[in-house]
Amino acid sequence: MNLQIITPDKQVFAGEVVAVTFPGSEGQFQVLDNHAPLVSTLGLGSLVVEEAGAIKQSFSIDGGVVEVLNNNVLVLAESVVA
Amino acid sequence: MPSLKEVRNRITSVNSTQQITKAMKMVAAAKLRRAQDNITRMRPYAQKLSQMLATVSSGSEAGSQNPYKQERDVQRVLFVVITSDRGLCGGFNANVVKAANALLADKYAAQAAKNNVEIMSIGKKGAEAFTRRGFSVNTAHTDVFLSLSFDKVKAAGEEIMADFKAGKFDVVEVIYNEFKNVATQIVRAEQLLPMASDKTNTSKAVSAAANYSFEPSEEQIIDELIPKALKMQLYKAVLDSNASEHGARMTAMDKATENAQDLLKQLRLEYNRSRQAAITKEILEIVGGAEALAGK
Question: Which is it for the CA torsion B109, B111, B112, B117, positive or negative?
Answer without folding.
Answer: negative
